[in-house]
Amino acid sequence: MAKHSALRRYTWFDWVNIVFMVLFCFITLFPIWYVFVGSFNEGLDYTMGGVWFWPRVWTLDNYLVVVTDPAIWKGYLVTIGRTVLGTVSSLVFTSVVAYAVSRRNLRGRTVYYWIFMITMFFGGGIIPYFILLKVIGLLNNFLVYVIPSLFSAYNMIVISIFFAQLPDSLCEAARIDGAGEYRILFTIVMPLSKPILSTVALWAIVGHWNSYLDSMYYVNDPDLYSLQYVLMRIINKSSVPTNPGVTLPPSLYETITAKTVSFAAIVVSTIPVLVCYPFLQKYFAGGFMIGAVKE
Questions:
Q1: What is the pLDDT of residues 233-244, one digit of tens each?
Q2: Which of 89, 84, 129, 82 is nearest to 228 (CA)?
Q3: CA nearest to 75, candidates 261, 241, 212
Q4: Sequence-distant (≥ 6) Cβ neighbours of residue 174 within 8 angstroms
Q5: For a pLDDT cut of 90, what percent of the chain falls above it?
Q6: Cα gap 187→200, rounded to integer Å
Q7: CA 161 from centroid of its chain's CA atoms
Q8: Contact status, residue 209 vs residue 273, Cβ threshold 8 Å
Q9: DSSP state, 149?
Q10: Over 60: is that where the pLDDT of 293 sits?
Q11: Class for domain 61-295, per CATH?
């Protein structure tokens, strides 16, 4: 009886919302599941079509080709390096600027703020940017992944709004005790700002991990290609990587295809993000709105 009475309390609007959310979840999750299923299916069998919800012919050959491809692992190292170094350096550099802008006693604070705002809407274009990177020696350099992303005006504004909401009495007490601005920032302000810093860090991590255009435009050295660019080359070539120096059974190449191998490479490339996200999710959920809402 209790179950039936609970069902009667649902209105037509509730049922519409339920149906809509189920369809929305399906549309969102099915492409991920489709790639996952294809990565475990035999390549030749997959070309026959009809593989949607479950592998028809199970195989690990696609993953064997991926994990033995040296270009994949080089891309992994480059992407992990740029993600770690780029995220940490960007977070520190942006937080320093955000702390300065959040201080009401900063001279020229309004001028600096509007200069940062202008950079969000206007840019020099790809050709002047390319020439600038060439002049300062960042082409075919690992630092091309790090230095240009040191500062983000949008992230700075979000962080500065959060910093401005912290009680001024904390900073004043630290100054009375003889602490300088850098010590106040790194020992008081930033530890109290974990939600917003974790949120911005997650944005930076996803941005670095998914980036491939910088490798395409500014890097010619295969040893410096990012993982996503390596995956894009595999997908666009529509051919199975030969993996020189690695001996695989000849029969393996008769059953796999570039499509299923690319699916396996995509799955392998998303594993670190899926592993890291749960640890930042609680901060992300709390920090996403804190910096944008004033009480």
A1: 877 776 666 655
A2: 82
A3: 212
A4: 183, 184, 187, 188
A5: 22
A6: 19
A7: 23
A8: yes
A9: G
A10: no
A11: mainly alpha
The tokens 């991926």 sit on which residue?
66
Q: Is the pTM of this model over 0.85?
A: no
What's the residue count for the chain?
Answer: 295
| Domain spans in the chain, listed from the N-terminal domain onward | 61-295
pLDDT digits (tens, 9 = 90+) for 36-73: 898 888 888 888 888 888 888 888 888 888 888 888 88
- Residue (of 191, 236, 188) closest to 212 by Cα position: 236
Instruction: Measure the CA dihedral 36/37/43/49, to 10°.
Output: -130
Report the C-alpha gap between 33 and 182 in whole angstroms. 47
Q: Are 147 and 276 in contact (CB under 8 A)?
A: no
93 Cβ contact list (under 8 Å, min separation 6): 150, 151
Mapped to the 3 state alphabet, what secondary structure does 257-289 carry?
Answer: CHHHHHHHHHHHHHHHHHHHHHHHHHHHHHHHH
DSSP letter (8 states) at residue 58: B
Report which of 60, 94, 40 is spatially closest to residue 203, judged by C-alpha positions: 94
Instruction: Scan for tokens 């199970």, then name that residue.
Output: 58
Question: Closest by alpha carbon to 83, among 264, 230, 207?
Answer: 207
Show the tokens assigned to 191: 């530890």
Which tokens is 103 given?
A: 């201080």
Q: List the Cα angle 275/280/281 in 5-degree steps.
A: 95
Q: How far apart are CA 65 and CA 79, in angstroms?
A: 20
* Residues 6 or more apart in contact with residue 7 via CB below 8 angstroms: none
Give Cβ neighbours of residue 102 (< 8 Å, ≥ 6 apart): 160, 161, 163, 164
Contact 272, 81 (CB under 8 A): no
Locate 147 and state its tokens. Answer: 């230095």
